[in-house]
Amino acid sequence: MKREEKLIETIEGGDEKGNGITILKYQEYIVADGERLPSLQRYQLQDGSAVNMIDASTFQIVKSGVTVKRR
User: Fold this and answer.
1) Counting CB atoms within 10 angstroms of each CB, which of 42, 52, 56, 67 has the fewest?
2) Residue 16: its pLDDT value, please?
3) pLDDT at residue 45, as a whole number
4) What own/partner pairs with CB < 8 Å and gap ≥ 24 does 59-64 have?
């Protein structure tokens, strides 16, 4: 069984201070027996910092606790 990861969305957002923040959404796939099955999704900043999705338009940067709203 092999795993692959693909960038599937670039999300432009901003924090309370108006700073622009780009969040990257990755989809992991499990590749087995010629099939490519979607597995986990994850969010991160361009520098690799982890991001949690709160809802479809709200995210939180794990390290700083900063809330980011989708634009």
Assistant:
1) 56
2) 96
3) 98
4) 59/11, 59/13, 59/23, 61/21
Distance CA 17, CA 14 (A): 8
22 touches 10 (CB < 8 A): yes
Name the amino acid, one letter, at 17: K
pTM value is 0.91
In the chain, the amino acid numbered 16 is E
List, for residues 17-52, the tens digit of each pLDDT value: 999 999 999 999 999 998 999 999 999 999 999 999
* DSSP 8-state class, residue 15: -
Residue with tokens 């338009």: 57
Name residue, tokens 């969040």: 23
Q: What is the DSSP string of 40-68?
A: EEEEEETT--EEEEEETTEEEETTT--EE
